[in-house]
Each structure stands twice: as structure tokens, then as C-alpha cells.
Write a structure and sequence with these properties.
Rossmann fold; 6-stranded parallel sheet; 7-stranded parallel sheet
Length: 419
């Protein structure tokens, strides 16, 4: 007769065997995807969470503090992090990296900026412990460590076409910064071509970016779009019936395209809105605004709310989300969050790039020179924009919930494991 201890022993052995049978995925990312206060962090977190449920995932991530709250927070969500502790950046060392990048003909932006010795050491150590089935590059910059795993199968999650981002920002800057950024764009395109050749699978966030990497030579480029945690936003009503029209702008305000969009709304759009609706207000909400953005709060009916712990209050107060971007890349998580929250959206074509939404069905799309008129029309047609919001929420739930996106990412990795 089998004893109880033997039964438990067999069950334990089976569980261990099951864990060992899971393919090993070594993830390299330049920073902890925590807190969830930026689009990059949100995407990385949700995809890594999904991967950790299906595979044995080791995440090597840059960190500055041993007691960083992100380490236990990610652990509670099942994401196992091996931190690569590194010193804080300082202007002198970063200038050295810029000069070194120029000499080596490699991009500093989104590449050599993150090529830190602590990361290299952590990667070597984990490769020595166990040869992974897949090396997963989160963003482009981990390609800088390609020499450490030359024969590994690679999955690359490219959140943006970084060369396009650099080129767009270059057009907004003056000499000599624009010249430098155009050169960075050229160097980034070369690195994007390298990752297209090296990766078994490339994941992109939009069909436009998928086509870009296919043209660069990527033979297996998957569309794995950005997503939204619909459950976190479905408590809000569809549409907003407020006596006072409230326009909302959300974004990381330290990022130049977001800062310029906020200034455009406050300085160019709001005067035209106030001429027709003097009770209207604009709320600019985001992280780390510079002095140019902070100064916008001095304008009539403009508020700036920096580093708020929760944007839910502002999503609930708002009548319309305004997204007047004219540069940037990837897909706008702020639009997906507004869709999930049932908030009507007005965007420029650039602002809603990469989202399968249609003008006049899920949102209103207006060029910048017609943006104020579009907002005024939306304010005067609450029933119409509520219908947009209803269809926008349905789109978010059916296509962009992170549970759906996570399955697509897991399928991409599983395909590489089976090659």
C-alpha cells in the first residue's frame, strides 16, 4: 500500500518536472517596468506578466536601489526580476557616452545610453547559470548586448520605430540639435535593420510599424498592439454629462511631443474654445512637466496637475480626451484608456496611429488647424460623442484588453521555442 508520504513525494516530483518542462525565457530590459506610469512600463509589465504565467521567465532589469519598491511589486505579480544595480546617471558620464557613440557610429538614443556594465555582468551571469530557450529583448537597446548570446533565438518587442521618433523630433529642433538627431535617426535605422535580421520574431504595436520592419528584412513580424486593462476602467459611465465642459490631456509631460501638444492645446486651442464657451476648462495631467508646461497653469481656465497618483479622478471629471499630437510613435495608451473608461476622444491622425479605430465611429479625428472646431462641435453634440464612446469601449474590450494581447505575445514566443 502506498504511503501518504510517497504520494506527496511523487506529486512534488511531478510538479518539479512540470516546472522544468516550461521553456526558459531570458528577458533583457533597461529599467524596471514599475511604477505603471508610462506607456513603456505598462506594456512591458502586462506582457511580462502574461509570459510569466506560461514560461519560466527571468527578467534582467536595470535598477538603482536595492530597496526599489518595484522589485517586490513585480514579484507579487509573478514577474521574477534579476536586478542589475547601476549608478545614477550624471551629465559628465552621459556626455562621455554621447561622444563614444559618435566615435563608434552607434546611436546614443535608445541604444548606447543603456549599455551599462552592470547589465552586461548580469546577462553573463544568467547565461552561465542556464542557456535560455529564447532571449527576449524589451525595446531595441538590449541589442547592444547581442555579442553575449550570438546563437540565441531572439524575440524582440519593439515598442516604437525609434528612428522615426528621432526624425520627427529633429524637425522640431534647431541647429545643431536637429543635425545630431537626424544622425541618430540614421544610426537607429541601421540598428533596426540589424534586429530585423537577428530576431526569429519581431513584435510591433501597429500595422504601419509591422510593414516597416518587414521592409527592413524581418521575416516574421507580428502585430502585438498596445492594450488596456479594461477591468480597471469599466466602472466609469459611457459618455460624460457635465455642466462645465472639461477637456483632458494626459501624457508623460517630460516627453517633448507630449509637452508640445499640451502647449498647443493651452495656447492655441483654448482661446478659441473660450470665445464660444467661456465656462470650458482644460486639465493637463502627467508626469514631470518642465517649466514651459507648468507655466500653462497661468493661462485662463487651464490647470496643470503633475505626478498624480491616480488619473481616474480626471477621467471621470472630463468631458472629452483631447490628443492633438503631431509627432511621436507607437500607439497611444491614453486613447485606449479613454475608450475603456467610456470617455469620448478627439485626436489628430498622428495621435491615433496604430489603433484600429475609425473617424466618426469610435472617435473624432481632426487635423490641428481644425482641432478647436472639432472640440467645439463635440461639446455641442454630447449624444453623438457618447455613441463614439460606447463603440470605443467595445473596441477596447474585444481587441485591446491585455488578456487578449498577452495571449498573442505568448503565441509569438511559443512559436520560437518550437522552431
Amino acid at each position: 500500500m502506498t504511503s501518504v508520504s510517497e504520494i506527496f513525494s511523487r506529486a512534488s516530483s511531478a510538479a518539479v518536472a512540470s516546472r522544468k518542462a516550461k521553456p526558459d525565457v531570458l528577458v533583457i530590459t533597461s529599467e524596471l517596468p514599475w511604477p505603471l506610469n508610462s506607456g513603456g512600463h505598462i506594456r512591458s509589465f502586462h506582457i511580462l506578466k502574461a509570459l510569466s504565467e506560461e514560461f519560466n521567465v527571468r527578467v534582467i532589469a536595470g535598477a538603482e536601489l536595492a530597496d526599489d519598491p518595484g522589485l517586490p511589486a513585480l514579484g507579487r505579480h509573478g514577474i521574477r526580476v534579476i536586478p542589475a544595480f547601476q549608478n545614477k546617471r550624471n551629465p559628465i558620464s552621459e556626455l562621455g557616452r554621447v561622444v563614444s557613440s559618435l566615435i563608434c557610429e552607434e546611436p546614443y538614443v535608445m541604444f548606447n545610453r543603456h549599455k551599462r556594465p552592470a547589465m552586461r555582468q548580469a546577462i553573463r551571469k544568467q547565461l552561465a547559470k542556464k542557456t535560455p530557450d529564447v532571449v527576449y529583448l524589451d525595446h531595441l537597446d538590449p541589442l547592444a548586448f547581442r555579442g553575449l548570446f550570438p546563437r540565441a533565438r531572439i524575440v524582440a518587442d519593439l515598442h516604437n520605430v525609434y528612428s522615426t521618433l528621432a526624425k520627427r523630433v529633429a524637425t522640431e529642433r534647431k541647429f545643431p540639435v536637429n543635425l545630431y538627431l537626424h544622425n541618430e535617426a540614421r544610426l537607429l535605422r541601421y540598428m533596426e535593420k540589424q534586429v530585423a535580421a537577428a530576431a526569429s520574431v519581431i513584435m510591433t504595436v501597429s500595422e504601419t510599424e509591422q510593414g516597416y520592419f518587414q521592409k527592413l528584412g524581418g521575416y516574421n513580424v507580428r502585430l502585438v498592439p498596445n492594450g488596456v486593462d479594461c477591468a480597471a476602467f469599466n466602472k466609469y459611465p459611457i459618455g460624460r454629462k457635465h455642466a462645465r465642459p472639461t477637456l483632458l490631456y494626459l501624457g508623460a509631460l517630460s516627453w517633448q511631443p507630449n509637452a508640445k501638444a499640451a502647449e498647443f492645446l493651452a495656447r492655441d486651442v483654448m482661446p478659441r474654445i473660450l470665445a464660444e464657451r467661456p465656462d470650458a476648462r482644460l486639465q493637463i495631467v502627467g508626469r514631470n512637466p518642465g517649466p514651459e508646461v507648468t507655466a500653462l497653469a497661468e493661462l485662463p481656465n487651464v490647470e496643470v496637475h503633475a505626478n498624480v497618483p491616480d488619473v481616474g479622478h480626471y477621467l471621470e471629471q472630463a468631458s472629452i480626451l483631447a490628443v492633438p499630437l503631431d509627432s511621436g510613435g507607437g500607439t497611444r495608451l491614453k486613447i485606449l484608456e479613454a475608450f475603456a473608461a467610456g470617455l469620448p476622444v478627439i485626436s489628430t491622425p498622428v495621435g491615433c496611429e496604430g489603433i484600429e479605430c475609425r473617424h466618426g465611429e469610435h472617435l473624432w479625428v481632426a487635423e490641428r488647424d481644425q482641432f478647436a472646431e472639432g472640440l467645439l462641435a463635440a461639446i455641442d453634440a454630447p449624444q453623438l460623442v457618447t455613441e463614439f464612446a460606447e463603440r470605443g469601449r467595445r473596441l477596447a474590450e474585444e481587441t485591446y484588453d491585455w488578456s487578449v494581447i498577452g495571449k498573442a505575445a505568448c503565441a509569438a514566443v511559443a512559436e520560437v521555442v518550437q522552431i
